[in-house]
Amino acid sequence: MVPERNPLISVIIPVYNVAKYFARCIESVVRQTYHNLEIIIVDDGSTDQTSAIARKWQNEDIRVVYFWKQNGGVSSARNTGLTLSHGQYIAFLDGDDWLELNALELLWDKMDEFDADLAICDIILEQSYSTRIIRENHLTEVCTSGILEKLLLSEMNPSVSAKLYKASIIYKNNVIFPENVSIGEDLTFNITIGCCSGKAVYIDQPMLHYLRHSASALHNQLCKIRDIEIAIAEIEKILYQWQLYEINKDKFQYLKFMHLYWYPFISTKISFRFNNYRILPNYYTVFCERLDEYMKFLNNPYYSRLNIFKKAVARLFATSWWLSTFFLNILR
To answer: Does 22 have pLDDT greater than 60?
Structure first.
C-alpha cells in the first residue's frame, strides 16, 4: 500500500456519452493502489446516463470532482480538467478506457526514483475481435533526451493516457490541447511536452487498456483527412515556436508523410473490407493535390527507415495511387 504522504495525482477523465463503458473506467481509478488522487470527471455535455454515473461516484468518494460543461470536444474537456487540477502529477484517461489497478503507483514510483518529468507504459489494445499489447520497443528504462525525436519518427505511442506527467512541466510551459484539432490532439500535446521536458522513464508493462471501437474509426479518419493536416500544421507551428524546426525538419517531414499518406493509405486498404468505396475518390483528390510534396519525401534521408515492402508501396503509390491500393488489397 502506498503511504498517503505521497504527492497528489490528478486524473483527468473527459467523458461524453460513454455510459456503456464508464463504470469500468472510474472503478479502475478509484481502486488504484495509489490512494492520494484527485479524480476530475469533465462531462462534455453528455445526454445519456454518463452524468448519473459520475454524480454517483462523486457522492461516494470525496476524491471525485464532477464538472459539467457545454459540448466542446475532448481537447476542450481536457483543458478544463487542467484548470481544475491541483495535483503535482497529471494523468489523463478516456471514459471508455481503464487502468490496471497498480498503474499509477508504478508510474509514480519510477518517476520519483529518477526524478523524471514523464513516465510511459505499454498499452493493451482491446478490440471486439482481438486483444494485443502495443509495446514501446524504442524506449529504454530512462530516456534523458530524444522524446521529441521519437514522437516525430513515430517510435513512441502518442496517447496521453499511457503516461504520467509532472504538472510543473505542463503549467510552466503552458502546454494545452489545441481545440482546433479534432484528430491528433494527443500527438500535438506530446510534441510540446517533448520540446520542453527533460528526463522520461519507461515501464515495460502494459497498464492502460485502450478500447478501439468498430470500423467507424477508420471511416472517420478517412473522412477527416483535412483535419489531420490541421494537426500537422499545429505541430509545425510548435516546432517553430520552440526554435526546433530547422534541426528537426527532415524528421517533421517523415511525421507528415506517415500521418498524411502512409497511415491513411493503410486505412484505405482496410476500408475495402467494409466496402467503403465511396471514400476513395475523396482521398485520391486530396492526395493528388499534394503529389509534389509526396514525391519530395522519397528523397528524405528518413525514407531509408522504411522496410523493403513499404518502400516498394511508397514508390508504387507515387506512380499510380489506384494501382497501389488494388495491389495492397490483393496482397492482404
So the answer is: yes
Residue 309: give the domain boundaries: 223-331
Separation of alpha carbons 73 and 14, rounded Å: 9
197 shares its domain with 321: no
**Rounded to whole angstroms, how far apart are CA atoms 67 and 90?**
17
Residue 111 amino acid letter: M
Asked if 176 and 232 sit in the same domain, the reply is: no
Which pLDDT score is estimated for 5?
66
Q: pLDDT > 90: what percent of the chain?
A: 64
165 in Cβ contact with 193 (< 8 Å): yes
Tens digit of each residue's pLDDT (9 = 90 or more) over 262-294 = 776 655 554 444 445 555 566 666 667 777 777
Position 89, amino acid: Y
Taking CB atoms within 8 Å and a gap of at least 24, the contacts of 106-110 are 106/203, 106/205, 106/207, 107/163, 107/164, 107/203, 107/207, 108/6, 108/7, 108/9, 108/34, 108/164, 110/201, 110/203
One-character DSSP codes across 1-38: ---TTSPPEEEEEEESS-HHHHHHHHHHHHT-S---EE
Spatial separation of the C-alpha atoms in residues 36 and 41, rounded to whole Å? 16
Does 246 share its domain with 153? no
Are 195 and 261 within one domain?
no
